[in-house]
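Ticket #4471: complex job returned nothing on first submit. Input attached below:
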Amino acid sequence: MAEAHHGPAYLAHHFDTPAQQFDAAKLGMWAFLAQEILFFSGLFVAYGIFRLWYPEAFSVGSHLLNYQMGGINTAVLLFSSWTAAMAVRSAQIGEQEGVPEADKLKLGGRQWTTRFLAVTILCAFGFLVIKYFEYTHKFHVGILPGQYWGHPWFDLQAAYGAEFNIELREAINSAAYSFGEGAVPYHIRSFYGIYYVMTGLHGIHVVIGIGLLFWILRLNMKGKFSSEYNTPVDTVALYWHLVDLVWIYLFPLLYLID
Amino acid sequence: MASHAQSSHGHAEHGDDYHHHQHISTIRTNGAVFAGLLFFTALTILAYRFRLGEYNLLVALIIASMKASLVCTWFMHLKYEARFNVLFFLGSVLFLSVFVGYTVNDTGHRGRNQTIQGRRVDPATGAYAHGTADVIANNPQGQAFETLPPAPPPPAGQ
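Support reply: We reran it on our side without changes. The output follows.
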């Protein structure tokens, strides 16, 4: 150690060089992401076992989900992953001071980082809004997990007449497994238990992601990042991509069962 | 791009080991990856609409894995990441595939073998394994897939 205060302001005093600090942060982030994979792996195992035990429940249960809404949400999340990647890129490029105008990289610098992060946050909220409409519709018609199946919290079925019944019936009858007109397999409760836990946990990750994105948006607007120091943008984007990765698997596994 | 090298290696004055080196992706790469992700999303929905039956899960997982590798390789910069970090992350993916793969393979073949071979978990009582044949047979609201032979009477003298 040369001296107590060394190097630029962003360099914590227990690191020798920015490179060392960066490598430590990246290793820590990848260790956390590996832990996230392990964390979700238990749920994917539960999904696999229950799908094998009750294929009929997964088929009918999946047909009660709106795959168009799930598809739109997938596109929203993929787009937000692209804007997150573009935010990292613009932060890495930095202000390009002294670079001739013609040689400057496009969409680089602090302002673009702000814009890309803001769009990422908007998409995250958009995802939650669509998820909110999906959830509330299901609550209203009594598509609930486990013992709560078929017990609407709000009696909208009475208010809307038979409309809900017709819609649900059509969905049930379109499944690959048929038990006769409008019949629902008993273990559809288990499918919705898995659905709510997996999408709910993913939703919590989205909410945490919004908080983290706001945090780096604030730091960016304060001018804390440059081409030399942008590790928080990098690591938060990594987290956001992981949220996207989980959804990439959840969408076909839950919404697109034959 | 002409200025790519200039801006990504613009800190040479500090020496090579002082500042970290980051790979800056191009707009074109990120755009192509996003387009690819949308394409695979459309493809997985199309595959679902085609009603692939027993191949539904396999095809969905293959397409999802292609999307996942696009995100990991390009958006998460795994292609340019330190080898140790790549190993660390892929190690967890390997664990996931062993965990899910072996459990699902085991569970998936239990009930089938018992039904086909007429075997039961407890030969003395003739009970089926939980979660497979007994659940199907006693399913209160659903319907049995197949007619199971009645359990044999317990051996005499017990």
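Chain B touches chain A through 72 residues (CB under 8 Å). Closing as resolved unless it happens again.
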